[in-house]
Amino acid sequence: MTEIEPEHDNKRNRRHWITRWLTRFVVFTAMAYVVFLITLSFSETALVYPGSDYPKGNWDPDWFEYEEIEFQSADGTDLVGWFIPTDQEPAEPTRTILICHGNAENVAEVSGYWGTQFRDRLRAQVFAFDYRGYGKCKGTPNEEGLFQDSVAALNVLCEKANCQPEDVIIVGHSLGGGPAVHLAKTEGCKMLVLQRTYSSLPDAAAASYPMFPVHWIMKNRMNSADSIRDCVQPLFQSHGSEDALIPVELGHKLHENSPAESKEFFEVEGMGHWDPLPEEYWQRLSSFVDDVCG
To answer: Residue 102 carries which DSSP code?
Structure first.
């Protein structure tokens, strides 16, 4: 008995030590996880809206015509947009396009590519604008603020082009898909063009941070998959099959919820989130617009 008891005590002490160590490890890990969630919550604005501050981009281009327009959002936030007139002959029909751009972009970057592409490919006059906190615009971006900014931009474009929201083709790229769908639902439009966008911001965040309960903690929602249920306007949507930032499945989820009778989903095989759109995209978009808008 005297030889067995010490061995038994040693095993019991070892089990006790292991249990205590595991308990401390679990408690420490749980505390670290909670602290990170709190940090993630406070950092949400910076993570969701990284912006693209002035003077990034070419703010004095000389190779296309544009007019810089200053205007205000509903809450008084000062905003900036660029109006790009059509280069069509006066007698030819002109389409009107509003661009809701994506993250890490501003009007100086967007207008020279997206603006002129839509002008030339769709024979249109184009208005691109910056949200609060982007480009030259002051303020801090948030969901309600971006929605207000988008409505203000649509109103400016309609006044400039002497048209109604129902005459405007609204383009939403990446982050801009949320404001674009919101505009179609609340203000109306002629048709929606959505590029590499999401079903909701929490859905997109969950793809990048699957280990965190982002659907519970995110304040910025932009639930386009829900809002688009009220949008009967024609929809042309595109997405890359290899999009690692906003997986193509989220694009399909959004598209499936659209009640539009005229809609098309163009999936580009092998394309990532930042890859250029192929020529086939512009051909199919032009054909779709011709068919549904005349």
So the answer is: -
Cα–Cα nearest to 238, from 200, 275, 183: 275
Record the pTM: 0.89
Residues 6+ positions from 287 with CB-CB distance below 8 Å: none
- CA-CA distance, 245 to 273, in Å (whole number)? 6
Count of all residues that appear for the chain in the document: 294
From residue 289, give the alpha-carbon distance in Å to each of 145, 176, 197.
30, 20, 19
The pLDDT-based confidence of 257 (bands split at 50, 70, 90) is very high
Q: Furthest-apart CA pair in the chain: how many Å?
A: 109
pLDDT digits (tens, 9 = 90+) for 60-101: 999 999 999 999 999 999 999 999 999 876 656 689 999 999
Q: 192 forms bridges with which residues in the sheet?
A: 170, 235
pLDDT tens profile 180-208: 999 999 999 999 999 999 999 999 999 98
Residues 6+ apart with CB under 8 A from 184: 170, 192, 228, 231, 233
What integer pLDDT is reported at residue 1 of this predicted model?
45
The pairing of strands 78-84 and 67-72 is antiparallel
Cα distances (angstroms) measured from residue 1 to each of 9, 10, 13, 15:
12, 14, 18, 21
Sheet containing strand 235-240, edge to edge, reads: 67-72, 78-84, 124-129, 95-100, 168-173, 191-195, 235-240, 263-268
- Report the distance separating Cα 245 and Cα 242, nearest Å: 9
In order, the DSSP letters of 238-292 are EEETT-SSS-HHHHHHHHHT---SSEEEEEETT--TTSPPPHHHHHHHHHHHHHH
Strand runs labelled E in 18-77: 67-72
